[in-house]
Amino acid sequence: MSKNTGVVEDLRYIRHGAGLTHPETPERLVAIYEMLDNPDMAWKWTGIDARHATRGELERVHRPSFVDFIAQTAGKSMTILDPDTVATAETYDTARLAAGGFMNAIDSVMSGETDNAFALVRPPGHHAQAATAAGFCIFNNIAVGARHALARWGLERILIADWDLHHGNGTQEAFYEESRVLYFSTHQSPGYPGTGGPEEMGKGPGLGYTLNVPLRPGADDALYVRVFRELLCPVARSFRPELILVSAGFDPYIGDPLGEMKVTPEGFACLTRVLLDLADEWCGGRLAMVLEGGYNVQGLTKCVRAVLLEMIGETRVTEETLIRMVGETGGQADRVIDRARERIEPFWPVF
Ligand SMILES: [Zn+2]
Q1: pLDDT, tens only, 191-231
Q2: In the annotation, is 127 catalytic?
Q3: pTM of the full structure
Q4: Residues with CB under 5 A from ligand 1 (ion)
Q5: Between 64-71 and 91-111, two packed helices, what is the crossing angle to 10 degrees?
Q6: Which of 102, 179, 201, 202 has the greatest number of C-beta atoms within 10 Å?
Q7: Rounded to 5°, angle at Cα 266 from 167 and 242
Q8: What is the pLDDT of residues 141-170, one digit of tens each?
Q9: How far is the CA of 259 from the centre of ligand 1 (A)?
Q10: Where are the domains of the chain?
Q11: Local structure of residue 39 (DSSP, 8 states)
């Protein structure tokens, strides 16, 4: 059955960082938008407008002084925010549009206007903390989006799955003491930003609601699929999410210049299917993705296409495919899964 999939696409997202030499280049979205406009894709999805996040919406996650700090970069040709992160004249505007575009994607899914949605925006967000821009991120789009969904739609249980190569330290921080948002991250370890150890599991009422599964370089489709199916799925079924949000970074792609993982476009389609099935099972299919990293422009475009086709229902990864894929993993994968289960079991006795 095909689904009505919403896509946030807006040429204003190209403006941030224009003219810089940086891996998080406007070309990433130029290539993705060309793919979307291709005759074989163009009619398959529904456009969702971008909008600016309001000050109040940003301040659910970020300190007012930090929003002021980013605002004063507007119109200046270059402001260095951290060794990896630069604001250009239009960055403040673009970053507000990124968070706002994702909130519109969430509203579209929550209202039933679309079944699921993908916000193809930049700058990315998951490293941005309450008072810090970092790792190419300005405002934390997914955290602002989750806060919005809690406030506007009165939700009580949101699952955030973060498959970006890097740990979403900003997102973890935003919900570390929160039981309404379950944050699940896979990431390459060791790697930037250095957080995301398995022992980081939340605090106070949020204890057990942050789950980190660091993976050694070289993790492939099969290992990722196993981690999602054998660790995330049982926990998610117990948590019973009302909405699933995804920090969709494509830097675990096999040809990414920043990573050493081996995930293929088909692998990302498999992860998408696992999450879509969870969403169908628990929350009427409601799932919204937001673009994070992914720096091999050609590979990124292939991965986004594979994920979108799965969301639309144009392709459908079957249970047989998932089982066959997982059957190929060896003893090292068993140890990764077993160790993570031991950590998670006291909080989620579901295995
Ligand atoms: Zn990343």
Answers
A1: 999 999 999 999 999 999 999 999 999 999 999 999 999 99
A2: yes
A3: 0.98
A4: 164-166, 249, 251, 293
A5: 120
A6: 102
A7: 55
A8: 999 999 999 999 999 999 999 999 999 999
A9: 8
A10: 5-344
A11: T
